[in-house]
Amino acid sequence: MIEMPQKFDSNEWFILGSLLLFYPIIFILAKRFPLSITLLVLAFGLCFSKLLDDILAPPPLDLYDINDTPKYDLADIFMWFLYPPFGYLYVYFYDKWRIRRVFTFLYIMACSFVSIGYEFLCLKSNLFIYEKGWKIIYSYPCYLALLSLHLMFFNYLKYQYDKTKLEKKAS
Amino acid sequence: MAFLVFSTLTMIFLIYFTLTPKHLHFFEMAMIWLLVVFLHENYSTIVMLNLGWIKHAEGAFELVSFFIMFVLLFPALIIWCIDRVSIVRSAAVKLLIVILVNGLMIGLEYLAQYLGVYEPKQGYQWWYAAEALSLTGFAFLVDYGFRIVLRKEVRLT
Fold first, then answer.
1. I need a labelling partner for A14 at 20 to 30 A (CA). Which of A117, B13, B36, B103 fits?
2. Three-class SS of residue A142?
């Protein structure tokens, strides 16, 4: 049903290394948000990255391949968990540095460049295989859209959380 | 045709859903939506790509219809189902709502098949029921777990 990777090579090592690097960072960082917001931010990263890859990667569009095979393999499952920590760190620093107004625009632009840099590393480790017409630069507008949506979602979550707290206090 | 049918149905249901009062907290609805979409994406990748039980239509409109159905309509139906179930007290009515919503989802899958959104291999239509039931069951579990977190944080009743 779920295929095994053809061999444990650069892409699997890259996934493993990234998971081991990013998840401890999340746990080490000070607890900044309530657990419900943290879980929703992580779920958002998980869902939207998979959604976008599901639209672009498999047939009928079939623009690129992920990992060793064009099918769904075990490494793919672990790969989806690379996105949530990035989304979490993204909103963490947005909130910590109190980025507002025009700096939000610059922050989204800069983080999209960071994402492109990370995707370049993924490409070099054969996690993504762009032999069907997709180019790394095409991902930039996707990151701009996704990261903007991520911030909107996060801000709305904070607004809803504060509103609920206030309502509970008042009642 | 598929695009017209599914986009219209989805919009009608979303308008109805938005305008009716809801019992679930926004956080619960968001979590259910995100995880149902994620689970369904995994299902569809395995069933279509690895097992080859169901084949996507090639047309762009059919592809858009497929995503409208599984990214908007089905999660909204499941959230509506959980919302209604959380309001009613009678166990029989709760069960009836779950059966009705699952029946509706299976019916919509047959409609999608009829309109050419996807084409199952002969004999694999049972997957429609398995998918609908497991998505609903998973959503109930997610809501149960997440409600515990929310209760602790915002004293949600």
1. B36
2. helix
**Residues across chain A:** 171
Inspect the interface and report whether the beta carbons of B38 and A47 lie closer than 8 Å.
Answer: yes
Contact of A35 with chain B, judged by CB distance below 8 Å, is answered with yes
CB distance B62 to B2 below 8 Å: yes
Q: What letter represents residue B88's amino acid?
A: V
Tens of each residue's pLDDT in chain A, 171 residues: 777 777 788 888 999 999 999 999 988 887 889 999 999 999 999 999 888 888 888 877 888 888 887 788 888 888 889 999 999 999 999 999 999 989 999 999 999 999 999 999 999 998 888 888 889 999 999 999 999 999 999 999 999 999 888 887 787
Which amino acid makes up residue A146?
L
In whole angstroms, what is the distance from residue A40 CA to residue A46 CA? 10
Rounded Cα gap, residues B96 and B147, in angstroms: 23
Contacts of A161 in chain B (CB under 8 A): 27, 154
- Beta strand spans in chain A (E): 65-66, 128-129
The interface predicted TM-score (ipTM) is 0.90
From chain A, pick out residues whose CB is under 8 angstroms from the CB of B44. 54
Structure tokens of A58?
Answer: 């498999």
Whether B54 contacts B120, CB under 8 Å: yes
User: CA-to-CA distance for A50 and A83, rounded, in angstroms?
Assistant: 9
Contact yes or no for B46 and A3 at CB 8 A? no
Cα–Cα distance, A114 to A121 (Å, whole number): 11
Q: Do B56 and A157 touch (CB under 8 A)?
A: no
Of A2, A40, A59, the CB nearest to B27: A40
Say if the Cβ atoms of B154 and A36 lie within 8 Å. yes
